[in-house]
Design goal:
Helices cover 60% and strands 7% of the residues. With 116 residues, the protein is mostly helical. Helix 2 runs antiparallel to helix 3.
């Protein structure tokens, strides 16, 4: 690959990256606005025991979903201590589990922007 092609490719990459960042900022603003509206709608629907709201293209449903918290080192260690009734053994097994996790390398191109 020649140097000129590399330079033009990098320039095009940066132009696209700038455009993406502009849209990301707009999307972030819209998500914040949407979240505020969602909070109001959920409060209103909850207080008025509304299960759904019909819209021209479907409906908004008031749903309650139960999910499990993700496992973390503290929860694993606490549970193992309860199970084994042995703090030392629980610490050892927790450390072993965390050390046995596979590391994955990802290659990517990251951009840094100078701050004025």
């Amino acid at each position: 690959m020649n140097v000129e092609l590399f330079k033009t490719t990098a320039k095009k990459y940066l132009e696209i990256d700038n455009e993406i960042n502009k849209y990301k900022n707009l999307i972030k603003l819209k998500r914040e606005q949407k979240e505020k509206l969602k909070i109001y709608l959920l409060q209103f629907m909850g207080q008025n025991k509304m299960k759904d709201l019909k819209t021209p293209d479907g409906k908004l449903k008031y749903t309650i979903t139960k999910v499990k918290k993700p496992l973390n080192k503290i929860i694993i260690n606490k549970t193992l201590k309860e199970y084994f009734l042995n703090d030392e053994k629980a610490e050892e097994l927790t450390t072993l589990l965390y050390n046995k996790r596979e590391n994955i390398e990802k290659i990517d191109l990251k951009r840094t922007i100078k701050k004025n």
